[in-house]
Amino acid sequence: MYSYLFRVVIALLAGAPLLAHAVSLDIPAGHPRNWYGNAARLSQARAHFGSTPFTPAGEPTTLAFGRALRGLLTNSTTDCDQAVAYLSTWEAPAGIGGFRDATRQQGEALLLIYDWCHQRLSPAQITTLVARWNGYMDRDNGDDFANEGSEANNYFWGRVRNNLLWGIASFGHNPRAQEFIDNALETRLGVWFPSWYQDFGRGGVFPEGADYGSVTLSYPIVPFQSAADFGFDPYAQTPYFREAQYALIYGTTPGPTSITGVPPAGNVLFPFNDDATFFEGSPINVRTYYGDAARYFGQRNPASGNARHMRAWLAATNAGRSWMFDALGGAGQPADLNALPLDYFAPGAAVFYARSAFDANASALHVQLGTPGGVQHRHRDAGNFQFWRKGRWITRESVGYSKPLRGFGGVGQIDTEHHVAHNGLLFQGRTTGRWVGSGPIVIPPGADRGDQPDGLPEVVRLHHHPEFGYVATDFSKAYRNTGGRRVDWPYADKAVREFLFLRRFGALVILDRMRASGDSQLPFYFTPNWISSIEGSGAPDPQAVHVNADAVVRTFLMHFETAPTTVANRASATVGNQVAELITLLPANPVYRVVNEDVAGAELYGQHRLELDSSGSVESYFINVVHGRDSGATALAANLVDNGGSWTLTLSDALQGSVSVVLLKGMASSGGSVTFGAAAPVPLHGGVQGITVTSEGPVWASLQDAIFANGFQLP
C-alpha cells in the first residue's frame, strides 16, 4: 500500500480537497445528537409518529433499535430501558469474519441506541460501553481488510459511518471521541477517499455494483447529516454524492421490468458485479437503501435540480423506505426527468448510460468500459453491455453472487464472476484482467504492477447527440499482464470496442477492432511459472494453447434470456412482448454457438449464451447490431458495404426511415459519421466530450470545450 504521506501528496497534486486539521464539531452536551440533534427534525418525526405510528419488530437488534426510536419520540423510559438492556449485553463475535459483519451490519442501530437513550445508561454502563466500542473501532480501523485501498467497499463505508456516529455520540464522556471523528472525516473522507475519487470515483457510479454499492449512498446519511448539523457538512467536501444521484437515475430501468421465469418487479437497477437480490426484485424493491437516500437527497437543498430529480426518481420507482426517512416528507414537486440529457458518463468507473427516453416505453443501455479499483465484490466484466426495452431485457449479463454456469463453449463450470457470464469480447476464452488492489492510486509508469493489468481501459472517444450516444474504448493494455507475470493471458495485442446507440431505431451498433498476439509462443509461456489452468479449478485450460497470432480465437458474447433461433447472420429470441435480435455483418458468414448456461440446481442464473468466433488472420473485426422490437413488428433491415478503407452500414425501418453509419477501418478508432435519411452527415467526435454535474443536474460540454478533462470536469 502507498504511505499516508504519499497519498496526501497525490491528492494535493490532483486538486482533491483535503482537511488541513481535525474537524471541530459543535456537539451539544445533551442527547440526542445523531440525526435528532436537530430540533426541527425531531419535532417533524414526532408529528409523523402521531399520524403514522410504528410498532417495533424484527430480529433482536432491529427490535431494540425500534424501541429506542419510539422511546425517543414518545419519551418512553420503558422502551429506552429495554433498548439499553440489549445494548449493554450485545458483544461482537470474536472471529474476524463474524466481527466485521456484526459491526458493519448492526453498528448503526447499536450506536444510535447509545445516543438516543443515553439518559437511561448508568455511569457504569457508559464506562463499559466506551471501553468496548473504542476497542471495536480500533479493531476495525486496524484491520488489513477494507480500509485504505478499499474506498468503494461496503465494509469501508460501514467504518466511516461507525467512526463518526461513535465519535459524535460519545463526545464529552470518551477521551478518544475526537480521534474517531478525525478517522471518519479527516483520514477517510479527507485523504483516502479523494485519492480514490480521482482515479475511479468521478461520475458517482458505485463500483461494487447495484447491490453492495448501495451502501455508499445509504450508510453515510445519518452521520454526515449529523456532522452538518454541528457545523461541518461532509457532503460539501466531494462532488461524488451529487454525481451518485445521477448514476442512480441513469442506472435504473425507465420502467417496471420482467425477467423470464420470475414474477414481475418494479423498476430495477442494471445489474453489475455481485448482485444477490436481482431475482428478488433488485435492491430498489428489496431493500430501503436507495429509497432512504432518495428521500434524504430529495429534501436536501429542496429547490435544487438535484433534489427535484431525486423526488422524481422516487415517485417513478416507489423504492422502499424506512420509517425514519419517510418522516422527512416529500419536500416539494418533482422535476420532469425527460428534461435530463439522454446520456450520462461516469469516467471514474468508465460507465456509459444511454436511453431513448425516461418512460416505460423507452430503450436503455448500460455499458461497462472500465475495471475500477477499491472494489471487492467485482466481476470480470470490462466491455460488458446490457440493453433494456419496454420492460424486458434484450440482453443482460448472467447475474449472481458466486452462482454456477456452464463454461466457455459449454465446457466445464464457471462462476457468475467469470468473463463468459458477461457480454464481453474474448481472446482465447478470456477477457481483460481486473484491477485487483494495491490501493486505488493508478500505478505510475515503471512501478511494480504486481498482478495488475498493464493498464486500465482508456475511453478514447465519446459523443452525446440528441439522436445517438457513441463511445469508443481501447482495452488493449487491460487484457495483458506482461513482463513475466504468471497471470498474463498472452493472446491479445489490440482490442478496441465501439458502441453506437441509435435512439429512434432501438439499435446498438458494436464494432470490435482486434489484433491478436503470438506471445504464447515465447519461452516463458512454456514454463510452470505461467498459470494456464481454468481459473479456480487447477485443471488444465483447453484454451491455453501455444499458437501463432492468426490462430488466436476471438469471441463476441451476447446473452439471451430464452433460447435464440439462428438463421444466416441473425439470432433472435422472443422475450415476453419483445424480440431480442443480433445481426452480424462481420464476419460475413457467421457461425453461432449457443450454450445453455444452466447448471442443475441453479437454473435460475443461467441464460442462453451466444458465442461468435473469429480466427484465421492477425487482425480482424466484428460488426454486430443488437436490436429490440415489439413482438410481431417487422425486423430491422441491415446492410454493410465495404468501401476499401471504410464500411457503410445502413439500417432501415418502415416507421423510422433509414440511417447510414460510416466506420473507418484500422486498429485505432477514428473518423466516421452518422446520417439520418436525407439529413447532413454528423461526424463522430474524435475526442472525449466533457460532462459535469451541477446543482441542477448533468451538463454536457460543447464538442469544442476543452476545460473538461478526461470526459469530466475535475472538482
Tell me what you see in this structure:
This protein has 715 residues and is α+β, with helices and mostly antiparallel strands. The chain folds into 3 domains: 4-201; 241-340, no CATH class; 341-700, Distorted Sandwich (Beta-galactosidase, Chain A, domain 5). Helices cover 27% and strands 23% of the residues. The chain is built from 16 helices and 28 strands. The strands form 7 sheets. An 8-stranded antiparallel sheet has the order 11-12-13-14-21-18-17-16, with no helix packed on it. Strands 3-4-5-6-7 form a 5-stranded antiparallel sheet, with helices on one face. Helix 1 (4-13) packs across helix 8. The longest helix has 25 residues, at 177-201.
Question: What attributes characterize this protein structure?
Answer:
alpha+beta, Beta-galactosidase, Chain A, domain 5, 3 domains, 8-stranded antiparallel sheet, disordered N terminus
In total, the number of domains comes to 3
Q: Spatial order of the strands in the main sheet? A: 11-12-13-14-21-18-17-16
From the N-terminal CA to the C-terminal CA, the straight-line distance is: 25 Å
Strand content: 15-25%
Q: Note the quaternary state here.
A: single chain
Task: Sketch the major β-sheet.
Answer: 8 strands, antiparallel
- Residue-averaged pLDDT, rounded? 92
> From the alpha-carbon coordinates, what is the Rg to the nearest angstrom?
26 Å
CATH level-two architecture of the largest domain: Distorted Sandwich
State the CATH topology of the largest domain. Answer: Beta-galactosidase, Chain A, domain 5
